[in-house]
Design goal:
The protein has about 325 residues and is α/β, with parallel strands linked by helices. It is built from twelve helices and 14 strands.
Length: about 325
């Protein structure tokens, strides 16, 4: 089949609300600083009312990554569920406006479009509280075979690994991708995902996944070790490629006999870490889809992450393609 897309992603379709915050506010709201908490619709309304004025923007981890792929000049597609409401229309407009293909039918009735309430403290750390809503109701019927079969890489968001129907959607997508000789990528997304589904994740990774993304916390939880270096070595036999990030220390990329330490790109000021991992995955996946070497893929990921953390919001404000060209990549 013709390559229509560099990357097709399946993930939570979420609208982000991002606001400045203080450490005291985080403590008063009993939120784990720097973490992500799932909340219900009532708690979402209460927290939204208590937050400082902020900005709203379409988000969702894998959707943010597709925004990054598009900013590099890549061809992206996204599959994710929204409600038949105003926020759902905003999400659909925004994902299409960045140049990504999006054709998932909205939920006809019931749950509203998901939203993520993000409080950013002066040190740039983001604390997230997420009401998943319709995003959590994606199922195998939403997976379009034409999209998966025509994408060089199918990218699966770990956050969506929690509901059973979404896991069925992942299995369907993986089967379609494998049958079409395409690559399958997975991001672990968060420590609680790993803790809740560790054995299932390991089995899925060993049997279906070619490319694994994880940060230091996630990969050490997956392999039940406190040593990042040990976790890197333990990951090697499980997947063809792993891109493992460790904040300001950059990332480690492994594949076969290759191992690359990739430095983080310098920035003038850390403003908001929201979406750093999503942006890194965007650069890496774009590079891999375009046949770049693993160390170059890691560098593209670092460039994307550095752009995103230099401003509020999880999507690029400066052309990542221009930044890559400026860096000689």
């Amino acid at each position: 089949m013709t390559d229509l897309y560099d990357v097709a992603a399946i993930g939570n379709a979420i609208v982000d609300v991002i606001a400045p915050s203080s450490d005291d506010f985080i403590a008063d709201q009993a939120l784990p600083k720097g973490g992500m908490t799932l909340i219900d619709d009532l708690r979402a309304e209460e927290l939204y009312e208590a937050m400082a004025p902020g900005q709203e923007a379409s988000g969702g981890s894998a959707a943010n990554s597709m925004a990054g792929v598009a900013s590099f000049g890549g061809r992206a597609a996204f599959i994710g569920k929204v409600g038949d409401d105003q926020l759902g229309k905003v999400f659909a407009h925004d994902i299409r406006a960045i140049g990504a293909h999006y054709d998932t039918a909205p939920l006809a009735s019931g749950a509203a479009t998901g939203r993520c309430l993000i409080n950013v403290t002066p040190d740039g750390q983001r604390t997230m509280a997420t009401f998943l809503g319709a995003a959590n109701l994606l199922g195998p019927g939403d997976v379009d075979p034409k999209v998966i079969e025509s994408a060089k890489i199918t990218f699966l968001e770990g956050y969506l690994f929690t509901p059973e129907e979404a896991r069925k959607a992942f299995a369907k997508a993986a089967g379609l991708a494998r049958a079409s000789d395409r690559l399958i990528a997975l991001t672990l997304s968060a420590g609680f995902v790993v803790e809740s589904f560790r054995e299932t994740l390991i089995d899925f990774i060993e049997t279906q996944v070619d490319i694994l993304f994880a940060n230091e916390e996630e990969i050490t939880l997956l392999f039940q070790t406190k040593s990042f270096d040990e976790a890197v070595n333990l990951a090697r036999p499980h997947v063809k490629i792993a891109a493992l990030t460790c904040g300001a220390q950059g990332s480690v990329v492994i594949g076969g006999d290759e191992s690359h330490q990739v430095a983080a790109e310098p920035i003038d000021k850390l403003v908001d870490t929201t979406g750093a991992g999503d942006a890194y995955a965007a650069g890496f996946l774009y590079g891999l889809a375009r046949g770049r070497r693993l160390n170059v893929c890691g560098r593209l990921g670092s460039i994307a992450a550095s752009e995103v953390i230099s401003h509020y919001g999880a999507r690029p404000e400066t052309s990542l393609r221009d930044l890559a060209i400026k860096a000689g990549l």
